[in-house]
Protein backbone atom coordinates (compact mmCIF):
# COMPACT_ATOMS: atom_id res chain seq x y z
CA UNK A 1 0.00 0.00 0.00
CA UNK A 2 2.94 2.34 0.67
CA UNK A 3 3.83 2.44 -3.03
CA UNK A 4 0.22 3.39 -3.87
CA UNK A 5 0.22 6.09 -1.16
CA UNK A 6 3.31 7.48 -2.85
CA UNK A 7 1.24 8.06 -6.01
CA UNK A 8 -1.34 10.21 -4.20
CA UNK A 9 -0.48 13.92 -4.11
CA UNK A 10 -0.25 15.42 -0.62
CA UNK A 11 -3.41 17.54 -0.97
CA UNK A 12 -5.55 14.53 -1.98
CA UNK A 13 -4.03 12.39 0.80
CA UNK A 14 -4.78 15.19 3.29
CA UNK A 15 -8.39 15.32 2.06
CA UNK A 16 -8.68 11.54 2.47
CA UNK A 17 -7.33 11.74 6.04
CA UNK A 18 -9.70 14.62 6.88
CA UNK A 19 -12.70 12.65 5.61
CA UNK A 20 -11.63 9.62 7.65
CA UNK A 21 -11.38 11.72 10.82
CA UNK A 22 -14.83 13.22 10.12
CA UNK A 23 -16.22 9.71 9.60
CA UNK A 24 -14.69 8.46 12.85
CA UNK A 25 -16.24 11.46 14.61
CA UNK A 26 -19.64 10.53 13.09
CA UNK A 27 -19.84 13.86 11.23
CA UNK A 28 -20.13 12.20 7.81
CA UNK A 29 -21.48 8.71 7.04
CA UNK A 30 -18.38 7.58 5.17
CA UNK A 31 -15.53 8.32 2.79
CA UNK A 32 -16.54 8.55 -0.85
CA UNK A 33 -13.47 6.87 -2.34
CA UNK A 34 -15.07 6.57 -5.79
CA UNK A 35 -15.50 10.35 -6.09
CA UNK A 36 -12.04 11.09 -4.67
CA UNK A 37 -10.44 8.49 -6.95
CA UNK A 38 -12.14 10.03 -9.97
CA UNK A 39 -10.69 13.45 -9.06
CA UNK A 40 -7.22 11.92 -8.57
CA UNK A 41 -7.47 10.21 -11.97
CA UNK A 42 -8.64 13.48 -13.56
CA UNK A 43 -5.43 15.09 -12.28
CA UNK A 44 -3.50 12.51 -14.34
CA UNK A 45 -2.59 9.92 -11.71
CA UNK A 46 -3.13 6.20 -12.37
CA UNK A 47 -4.91 4.84 -9.29
CA UNK A 48 -7.93 2.57 -9.05
CA UNK A 49 -10.79 2.70 -6.54
CA UNK A 50 -9.82 -0.65 -4.98
CA UNK A 51 -6.33 0.60 -4.11
CA UNK A 52 -7.70 3.88 -2.71
CA UNK A 53 -10.23 1.92 -0.63
CA UNK A 54 -7.42 -0.22 0.82
CA UNK A 55 -5.47 2.92 1.71
CA UNK A 56 -8.58 4.44 3.32
CA UNK A 57 -9.09 1.26 5.38
CA UNK A 58 -5.46 1.30 6.54
CA UNK A 59 -5.58 4.97 7.56
CA UNK A 60 -8.96 4.48 9.25
CA UNK A 61 -7.57 1.53 11.22
CA UNK A 62 -4.51 3.60 12.11
CA UNK A 63 -6.57 6.54 13.43
CA UNK A 64 -9.13 4.41 15.29
CA UNK A 65 -6.36 2.32 16.93
CA UNK A 66 -4.49 5.48 17.92
CA UNK A 67 -7.73 6.89 19.39
CA UNK A 68 -8.43 3.71 21.38
CA UNK A 69 -4.89 3.80 22.78
CA UNK A 70 -5.00 7.57 23.43
CA UNK A 71 -1.75 8.15 21.51
CA UNK A 72 -0.25 11.62 21.31
CA UNK A 73 0.95 12.87 17.92
CA UNK A 74 4.57 11.99 18.71
CA UNK A 75 3.62 8.52 20.00
CA UNK A 76 1.63 7.88 16.82
CA UNK A 77 4.47 9.01 14.54
CA UNK A 78 7.04 7.01 16.52
CA UNK A 79 4.85 3.90 16.42
CA UNK A 80 4.22 4.47 12.73
CA UNK A 81 7.94 4.90 12.06
CA UNK A 82 8.74 1.65 13.88
CA UNK A 83 6.03 -0.32 12.09
CA UNK A 84 6.19 1.07 8.56
CA UNK A 85 9.52 2.23 7.21
CA UNK A 86 8.35 2.47 3.59
CA UNK A 87 5.67 5.10 4.22
CA UNK A 88 6.32 8.20 2.08
CA UNK A 89 7.51 11.31 3.90
CA UNK A 90 4.60 13.44 2.67
CA UNK A 91 2.12 10.86 4.04
CA UNK A 92 3.76 10.89 7.47
CA UNK A 93 3.64 14.70 7.46
CA UNK A 94 -0.07 14.68 6.60
CA UNK A 95 -0.85 12.05 9.25
CA UNK A 96 1.12 14.06 11.83
CA UNK A 97 -0.71 17.28 10.94
CA UNK A 98 -4.22 15.77 10.83
CA UNK A 99 -3.72 13.81 14.06
CA UNK A 100 -2.22 16.85 15.79
CA UNK A 101 -5.15 19.04 14.73
CA UNK A 102 -8.07 16.62 15.09
CA UNK A 103 -6.89 13.44 16.80
CA UNK A 104 -8.09 14.54 20.22
CA UNK A 105 -11.65 14.84 18.95
CA UNK A 106 -11.68 11.09 18.22
CA UNK A 107 -9.89 10.22 21.45
CA UNK A 108 -12.39 12.24 23.47
CA UNK A 109 -15.37 10.78 21.66
CA UNK A 110 -17.37 8.50 23.92
CA UNK A 111 -17.56 6.02 21.04
CA UNK A 112 -13.78 5.78 20.51
CA UNK A 113 -13.59 2.34 22.08
CA UNK A 114 -16.70 1.14 20.33
CA UNK A 115 -16.46 2.11 16.65
CA UNK A 116 -19.45 1.26 14.47
CA UNK A 117 -19.65 -2.40 13.51
CA UNK A 118 -22.54 -2.13 11.04
CA UNK A 119 -23.04 -0.09 7.91
CA UNK A 120 -24.98 3.14 7.71
CA UNK A 121 -27.73 4.16 5.30
CA UNK A 122 -26.78 7.31 3.34
CA UNK A 123 -29.35 7.79 0.57
CA UNK A 124 -32.12 6.13 -1.45
CA UNK A 125 -32.98 6.89 -5.07
CA UNK A 126 -35.73 5.30 -7.12
CA UNK A 127 -37.26 5.50 -10.55
CA UNK A 128 -40.22 3.91 -12.29
CA UNK A 129 -39.57 2.28 -15.64
CA UNK A 130 -41.33 0.22 -18.24
CA UNK A 131 -39.60 -2.51 -20.22
CA UNK A 132 -41.12 -2.20 -23.70
CA UNK A 133 -39.54 -5.14 -25.52
CA UNK A 134 -36.54 -7.44 -25.63
CA UNK A 135 -34.91 -9.77 -28.12
CA UNK A 136 -36.87 -12.66 -26.59
CA UNK A 137 -40.25 -10.94 -26.37
CA UNK A 138 -41.69 -8.38 -28.78
CA UNK A 139 -44.18 -6.72 -26.46
CA UNK A 140 -43.45 -6.64 -22.73
CA UNK A 141 -44.98 -3.43 -21.38
CA UNK A 142 -43.63 -4.57 -18.02
CA UNK A 143 -43.46 -1.86 -15.29
CA UNK A 144 -40.75 -2.04 -12.63
CA UNK A 145 -39.22 0.09 -9.88
CA UNK A 146 -35.43 0.57 -9.85
CA UNK A 147 -34.03 1.34 -6.38
CA UNK A 148 -30.47 2.47 -5.60
CA UNK A 149 -29.37 2.43 -1.96
CA UNK A 150 -26.23 4.33 -0.98
CA UNK A 151 -24.63 2.83 2.12
CA UNK A 152 -21.42 3.34 4.08
CA UNK A 153 -19.86 0.12 5.34
CA UNK A 154 -18.25 0.00 8.82
CA UNK A 155 -14.88 1.13 7.44
CA UNK A 156 -16.56 4.18 5.88
CA UNK A 157 -16.49 3.15 2.23
CA UNK A 158 -19.55 4.46 0.41
CA UNK A 159 -21.10 2.11 -2.14
CA UNK A 160 -24.28 1.97 -4.18
CA UNK A 161 -26.49 -1.13 -4.25
CA UNK A 162 -29.13 -1.29 -6.97
CA UNK A 163 -32.04 -3.64 -7.51
CA UNK A 164 -35.29 -3.86 -9.46
CA UNK A 165 -38.70 -4.78 -8.12
CA UNK A 166 -41.93 -5.75 -9.81
CA UNK A 167 -44.99 -3.70 -8.87
CA UNK A 168 -46.26 -6.39 -6.41
CA UNK A 169 -42.78 -6.55 -4.81
CA UNK A 170 -42.73 -2.76 -4.53
CA UNK A 171 -46.18 -2.74 -2.91
CA UNK A 172 -44.92 -5.25 -0.31
CA UNK A 173 -41.78 -3.12 0.21
CA UNK A 174 -43.92 0.00 0.68
CA UNK A 175 -46.25 -1.82 3.13
CA UNK A 176 -43.26 -2.84 5.25
CA UNK A 177 -42.01 0.75 5.33
CA UNK A 178 -45.46 1.91 6.46
CA UNK A 179 -45.35 -0.68 9.26
CA UNK A 180 -41.91 0.59 10.33
CA UNK A 181 -43.17 4.16 10.32
CA UNK A 182 -46.17 3.19 12.47
CA UNK A 183 -43.90 1.47 14.99
CA UNK A 184 -41.57 4.49 15.06
CA UNK A 185 -44.54 6.74 15.83
CA UNK A 186 -45.10 4.81 19.06
CA UNK A 187 -41.49 5.23 20.24
TrEMBL record:
- Give the molecular function GO annotations: NF-kappaB binding
Recorded superkingdom: Eukaryota
Known function? Scaffold protein in the commander complex that is essential for endosomal recycling of transmembrane cargos; the commander complex is composed of the CCC subcomplex and the retriever subcomplex. May modulate activity of cullin-RING E3 ubiquitin ligase (CRL) complexes. Down-regulates activation of NF-kappa-B. Inhibits TNF-induced NFKB1 activation.
Q: Where is the COMM domain?
A: 120-187
Query: Which PROSITE patterns does the record associate with it?
Result: COMM (PS51269)
PANTHER family for the chain: COMM DOMAIN-CONTAINING PROTEIN 4-8 FAMILY MEMBER (PTHR16231), COMM DOMAIN-CONTAINING PROTEIN 6 (PTHR16231:SF5)
Q: Where is the signal peptide?
A: none
Protein name (database record): COMM domain-containing protein 6
InterPro entries with a match to the protein in the record: COMM, COMMD4/6/7/8
The family classification in the record reads: Belongs to the COMM domain-containing protein 6 family.
Amino acid sequence: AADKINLIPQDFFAELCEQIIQHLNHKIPGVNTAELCQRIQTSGIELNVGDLSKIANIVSFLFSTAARNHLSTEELITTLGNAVSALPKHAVQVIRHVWNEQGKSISESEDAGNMATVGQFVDLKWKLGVAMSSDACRSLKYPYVMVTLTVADPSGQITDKSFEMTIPQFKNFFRQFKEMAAVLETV
